[in-house]
Design a protein that fits this description.
The protein is mostly helical. It contains ten helices and three strands; from the N terminus they run βααβαααβααααα.
């Protein structure tokens, strides 16, 4: 970037979620408690899947990757938000803001593709159970995971390619608690209407398209099961209800923010608190507490860790 186009803004100021100290104290305690649960819960799921041979199947490997992504998504924004709640002046460097945007879109895009992979895994297990081991072999499972991360990276780099060289000469206040891409673009010293529309339409189209595709796939699975066996419908519904709940929790805030015609409404801040703080707790909880095999494996792992400590 040459001298003429060099950015005059070296840091951005977050306006935060609320100016009330009571609300900030509540958010501090709330966010800290939930972040601790996010870290411990998701690490427990990952370690359980890694160290328990009984869980070395596609469904649990995909689940452990979902836990990794949820942990990463939360870690990109929540520790900074907790830190900023201690101070009235909340700042982030220009490079830090770009980095935060990049990782949020990497993990967000990866999770979208991973949820599709998990839906495909359930489709094969429910609709083609006799061919499950053949179709969902280790090679395919690894391929699905790699594709999820690659497509998430491509999505993030595509978004950033259009904004990283925008000129910024002030103002530098972001009305949020993290670097939100639409708000970031609006601060540029240039006409960004077309760019805002493109970024919003791109993210909105991907979110809505993926959400609709997942819901249609779940409905198709339930209809297929009902045609073959009415007794199996309740079991399939029980299994898929966890997936549907996770999908709604993840895509709900994204769709609202990108489709809602008033992007400056403060409600989107609380929706993204849901995405960064609540959903990463509920995702593993929903899958884990509804799965007997996972609960047994966790108890086994905790027992083994307790025995190891006693022997030391």
């Amino acid at each position: 970037m040459n001298e003429k186009n060099h950015s005059m803004v070296y840091e951005f100021v977050f306006l935060g979620i609320s100016s009330s100290w009571t609300m900030q104290l509540f958010l501090l305690i709330f966010s800290f408690m939930f972040y601790v649960i996010i870290v411990l819960g998701n690490f427990l799921i990952m370690f359980t899947v890694i160290f328990d041979p009984h869980l070395h199947s596609p469904m649990y490997i995909l689940l452990s990757n979902l836990s990794l992504i949820d942990l990463c998504v939360s870690s990109v924004s929540v520790p900074k938000m907790i830190y900023d709640l201690f101070f009235e002046h909340k700042v982030i460097s220009f490079q830090g803001c770009i980095t935060q945007i990049c990782f949020i879109h990497i993990f967000g895009g990866t999770e979208m593709v991973l949820l599709i992979s998990m839906a495909f895994d359930r489709y094969v297990a429910i609709c083609k159970p006799l061919h499950y081991l053949t179709i969902m072999n280790p090679r395919i499972c690894i391929l699905l995971i790699v594709c999820s991360w690659v497509l998430g990276l491509i999505h993030a780099l595509t978004q950033l390619a259009f904004v990283v060289n925008l000129p910024f000469c002030g103002p530098n206040e972001i009305d949020s608690f993290y670097c939100d891409l639409p708000r970031f673009i609006r601060l540029a010293c240039a006409d960004t209407y077309k760019l805002e529309f493109m970024v919003t339409a791109n993210s909105g189209f991907i979110s809505i398209g993926t959400f609709v595709m997942l819901i249609i796939s779940y409905v198709y699975m339930l209809v297929t099961v009902q045609k073959h066996s009415s007794n199996g419908l309740s079991k399939a519904l029980s299994t898929l209800s966890a997936h549907i709940t996770v999908v709604v929790l993840f895509f709900g805030p994204c769709i609202f923010v990108f489709v809602w015609p008033f992007p400056t409404m403060p409600v989107d801040k609380f929706l993204f608190i849901l995405n960064f703080v609540i959903t990463p707790v509920l995702n593993p909880s929903i899958y884990t507490f509804r799965n007997k095999e996972m609960k047994v494996a966790m108890k086994r792992l905790i027992t083994q860790l307790g025995s190891s400590r006693k022997n030391l």
